[in-house]
Structures are given as C-alpha cells and as structure tokens.
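Q: A reviewer asked whether we had any structural model of the full assembly, not just the individual parts. We don't, so I'm hoping you can provide one. Inputs are below.
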Amino acid sequence: MWTKVVTGFGYWDVYSWLIFLAIASFFTLWLRNSGRQDYKEGTYQDEIYFSGNDVPEDGQDISVPADSAYWGFIKVFRPYYDVMLSVHNGLAQDYLGYFVLSIAIITALIVLL
Amino acid sequence: MNWHAHLPALLLAVPLLGAFATPVFNMGGKTLRNAWFIVISSSVFLIALALWHQVSVNGIQVYVMGAEQFALSLPSGMKLPVRIILEVDALSAFMALAGSITSLAGAWFSLSFMDRFTGLSRFVSLYLLLTVGMLGMMITGDLFNFFVFLEIASVASYGLVAFWRDRPQAIEASFKYMLLSQLAAMLVLVAIGFLYGRYNVLNMAAIGSLIHMGIVEKVALAFLISALALKCGAFPMYLWIPDAYGEAPASVSCLLVTVSQASLYGLFRVCFSIYGLAMSNKVVAWILIIFGLLSMFIAVSMAVIQHEVKRLMAYHAVSQTGYMLLGVGVGLLALGNSQALAEYGFTALKGGVFHIFNHAMYKGLLFLTAGTLYYMTGTRDLNKMGGLVRKSPWTAFMFVVAAAAIAGLPPMNGFASKLLIYQSSFAVHPLLTVVALVTSILTLASFVKVFQTAFLGPEQDRMADVKKVPATMLVGMGILTVAVLLLTFFPTWALSHLVEPAAKALVDQAGYIAAIMGGAF
Amino acid sequence: MTVGNMPFLVVGILFLMGVLAILREKNLIKIAIGISIIESAVNMLLITLGYRLSGDIPVYFLSGDVDVMVMPTPQALTLTAIVIALATSALMLSVIMLIYKHYGTLNVDELRRLRG
Amino acid sequence: MRKTIFIIAALVFGGLMLGALDSIHPFGEPGNVPMDEYFLHHALEDRSSENVVTSIVFDYRGFDTIGEAAVLFTAVCSVLALFREGAKK
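A: Here is a predicted structure for the entire assembly that you could use as a starting point for your response.
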C-alpha cells in the first residue's frame, strides 16, 4: 500500500517491479555462473580478439567517440537538424527576435480569441 | 511568542543574513567560510522542512511584513491588504522544500569543486543570494515583491554564470542570458503596472478576488505568461538555457534548475490563483500544452546530437520542463469543469507537480555528476572521456540512478510522474501522449550515449591520472541520490503527503484568496 | 488643452523604441542603452499611472490646501525599480567590458562561440 | 527576411501594448483608489512622516527596500567577482 501509484485509470506498483528485477538479476547471475568451467584467469583466454589484428595498447584507439553515436539517426534526420541548427545559431539578436515573436503571438492569441 | 509563525520570514531572512555576512566570515579563512556556507544552507533546509510541516498541519500561513500583528492581513477599516504579505500554501511550501534540498546539495558539492578558484567569498554570497531570490519568488504573495525577488535571482545568476570569467564562452552566455532576462523582467513589471493601474492593489490574492477580464487584463496575462515562460524555458524562448546552464559551475547549474522552476511556479500562480476561473476560455491552457509539447520534443532532439556533457543535460532540462507544462496545461484545461477535473485534470496536475519535485532532484544530480566528470578529467567534451567507471564507481552508480529516473524507466520516480501525465493527457488527445512517449525514448537514448562514452569502454591512457573525487562532492550528490531513491520506493507516500496537497492548493483559488481577504471576499 | 491619454501612449512608444533598438543595433553599448530605454519607459509608466489631475505632491507640509494628492505607491515602486535598473545596467556594462577584453570587438554578431 | 519578421512582430506587440495602455483608465483620473487613499490618510498618524512616499518606501513596503538593497549588493558582488584578482584559470 505504500508503493502503489493510482492513476485514476489503473494502478502501478513498485514492489512488483522490484520483484521482477530481483528475478531477472537472479537469472542473469545464474547464466553467468553456468559458463565454461575451463576458464582460467591470467592465461591466453583473457586476451581480446580484435579481428585478428594487434590490440592497441591505449583503450582510446578502440573506443567509439560520442560524435559517432547515433550516426545513422542523425544522417536520416539531416534536413530536420539543418533547420534546427539554423534556429540555434548563437546570435543574441535572433534569440531576442524569437522572444518578441512569441510575445506577439501569445498576446494576439489571448486578446483576439 | 510562537516562533512557528515566523517561519516564512525566517526562510528568507536566514539566507539573506548568510549572504550579507559571508565577507565577514571570509576573513576567518577557508574553513570558517565553508562552515558558514554549510550551516546556512542546512538551516534553510530545516526551516523549509518545518514550514512544510507547519503548512500541511495548519493550512495556509500568512505573514504580514511590518504590521502590528504579523497575521493581520487587512488593516482596520480596509477591505484590501496594503502591506507586503508572504503567503505560503502547500504548493509554495512544496517548491521551497525542493529548492532548499538542491541548494544544500549544491553547497556541499561546491566546497571541493570550487576550491581551486579565486573569489570564493563572492561565490558563496552570490550562491546564497540566488537561494534567497528563488525562495522569495516561491513564498511571496505580492506581485511587486515577486518582481524584486525575480531580479535578485536574475542578477545573482548573471554573476554566477560568468563566474569563470577567463572563459570567453562563460561571459558570452551570461550576456545572452542577461539580454533576454532583462527584457522579460521589464515585461513582468509592465504587467504589474497594468494590474496596479486597474485595481490599485499589488497583492496576488486581492487581485484574484477583484479580477474580471478586459483587454488590459488579457495583455497583462500574455506578458506574464511569455516572460515567465522565457525564464523557465519554453520552445522558441529557451535558447539561452543551454548556454547558461552549460557554462555555469556545476553546483550553480544544479541550483539554476530549481530557480527556473520558481518562474514556472510564478506562471502557475498567475494562471491558477490570480486569473483562475475569470479566464473563461481555454486559449491559455492550449498555449501551455503546445509550448510543452514543442519544447519537450525539440529540446530532446537537440540533446541527442550534443557532445558536450553539460550542454546535453541543459537541453534535457528544457525538455523535462515541457512535461510539467503539459501536465499543468491539461489540468488548466479541466479547471472549472468539475467532472473533467475529477476524471483527468487532477491526475494531470498531480503528475505535473510531482514532476517538478522529481526533476529538481534528478536533474540537479545529473548536473552534479557532470561537474564531477569535469573535475576528474578537466574537460566537458564527451569525445575526450571514457572508462571512468573504474575511477569512480560511486559517481557512475549515482549517474545511473539519475539517468534511469529522467528517462522514466520503471520503477524510478520519473516513471511515476510521467505515468500520471501520460494517462491523463491521453484523455484529452492521444497525440499528446505519443509526443511525450517519443520524448521519453529519445531521453533514454541520449543518456545511454553519455553513459557509454563517459563511463564504459576500455581503460584509456589519458584517463590514467584523473583526480580522485573528494568526499564532500560525494556527499552533495548523495543527498540528491537519497532523495531520488526515497521518492522511488515510496511514491504513494510522496503523492499523498507532498504532491496532493500542492495540487489541491493550485486549484483552490478561493482558499488562496480567502486566506488574505477573509470575510471581505 | 487636454492631453488625453497621450502620456500612456508616449510610454508605449518609448518601450517599442527600446525593443527596436535591441533588435536592430549591432553595437553592444547601444544594445545596453536600448535596455536602459526600456527600463526608463517602465518607470515612466508607473509614474504616469499614479498621476491624478491637479494633484499635489504627497508631502503634507509642501502640498498646501489641495485635497487631491498624486498617488504615492507608484513613486515608491519606481524608486525600487530605478535602483534595480541601475544595478543591472552596471553589471551589463561590466560584462560588455569583459566581452571586449576576450573577443576584441563590440559587434553582437561576433558572439557566436556557443551555438548548436 | 528573418529580421523583417522580427520587426513586424515587434510592431504587432507594440500595437497591442498601446491598445492596452489606452484603456487602463483615463490619464489623471484613476477613479477609486482605496490603497493609495489609505496611505494618504494614515501615513501621518501611523508613521509620523510628513512625506507619504518615505513612509511607503521605509515602512509599508519596507520589505521591497530590503530586496532592493539585496539587488544592489548582488550586483556589487557580481562585479567584484568578475573583476577579481587572481591567476588565469
């Protein structure tokens, strides 16, 4: 009763989610533990497989930078982002202009309707 | 003498004293100044807690500044209040509680975070003044006084955004913020002048009891809405927010989130308590809903492509403000129609108000973790980070908690408030819910990106000698993490004790007015 | 001769002039002057709101025998608003000085390091 | 193009504002003003001040004056913080 959220259309309970998370983590740990028994730490089994190439010393060379994340998403929505970047163009007077424009629109809507 | 009655005045007097006395304590050296900072911030938190308790037990608290009796709102022979009155209802107390928690967390965080910079006496003064301005906006009952506190908060935040004055970007952000914010403040003052010219009172409750719509009132309403929407960040006017939040020191960004919510509170006060039922058509409600949807979606889509961590989070601050505007807009749509209010309007209001508290906690926490990343690596660029979970597992844990909460993953508190907003806005139009859900997905996407690039990944050589995270910074983040987790595990308690009284206070215009006007109304 | 509502309209036009100044001028100092014009317009609005025809100064020993005094509240509000405007102008000019130091220019269009 | 839209918006905004300003009340005839009449009639006996504005600034609305002082203090602090001494960083 301390954890139930009633929305007026139904309800939702924190405990059920916590129980679900507990079961899920139990299964995850069980699966992890039932892995291969012949694994030994500190042998060749620890080495990273990097498509047969030499693994770079520095982790920086094999990590994906933030700019590359969601490359496809941004590529698809390029036209949308072109418009948006032209709005966020860093000109202080444009920012003021958008403010004045929205004041004018809000005032006109409220007064005329 | 009952000291409980003086809590509203103490809530403003203590941080004001703290700010004015900081230069004196600064002479005693660093330790004394830090102790003073923490003592004042903690006392503000305790006073806000006591005030919230007092309000939830005894109802609306009224404090008349300078009268013979501090509860005498109407002088003898007068039907209207003449003095400045602090009026604390459940919503004000709720907001003040949220504000004081973030202020305390930011204060703890600042102790080591700001340690390597000069001018810290000024920093502490400005930080406390920002707190004063925020709390004053939340508890004042007088329109001109609201403007004065708005200006205190604005001027303090101009100084704090430009605090790292050797970075050109910080100065630029401060200037842009100042330009927009001054125009907005002057619009607020013009609107106050209009209402004063019509009714010859400055008290919010008194104006609420007298108001009837004409062209002057409509224009004043439009000016107040657009100016306060600029200060809290709604779509075409939020453009200063990524600059200012991104360039301010992290603990200041954490507090600035709540300061902009004080403007949001002012917006709600204007719409519900001053205009309320007098505003018969639904234009304002739809304006709030459409602002909410636009700022929600556009800000989050801009956040996905950012690579500077604090700028990304600042865009999310705008996007989450959209949820509050949506929730409260739907509530405003149902105002005056008791069936619609019972069916979905009140749920939407509860969602919007609960989201304010949740947002203050988890967004503050996210800004503090971003500050920790900056402290450790000396950069804010996500392209230059990686593998930091090995260096500071606690920061990573708190980041995950906050990111799960902001993305609305069940069972976090963000999900509880978003669920209330989804279900009630669905009753108005399914499209509103669709936009809100898409926004939630994009929020999760961008935080997965931050977590993956900053914390995960192989160990990197350039991250070998990062700074250790000091204990006081962990304490600052820990306060907000505990708040997020408490709200997560006891949502029913939070809804029935914190949120529901606040949402009821919002729709109870008659109660707000009667607390000041008494029988005269 | 009657003035009608001219004082109110003059205030409105002054406000509009300030808004146009901050939208059109490129020099940062001129933009700061535009903000100052807006602030003056608002102060004048408050003062004109408080005027009553043939009203006298709201100080008893200076006002003579007239019944009508002008309204005192707007004057008090204006005193506060002037000090606030002064404080923000001072801060804005200081920030402009720092901008000149960092960017070497007073052109508002060159403040574009933060975008996107 | 963009500039033109902004100027037109500013003119629309100014026009609406002028319309509202025109209908507040006729200039010089504010009608019934209970709060200001209260100040004018009670300032002398309540506050022993010949100057009504003084009694408002420092008594009836004295809290605004504290706020005003705080704004001034804030601005001074900000300017001192911006022009503080100290090494680059």
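A: Points you may want to mention in the reply: Chain B has a mean pLDDT of 91. Residues 338-377 of chain B form the longest helix (40 residues).
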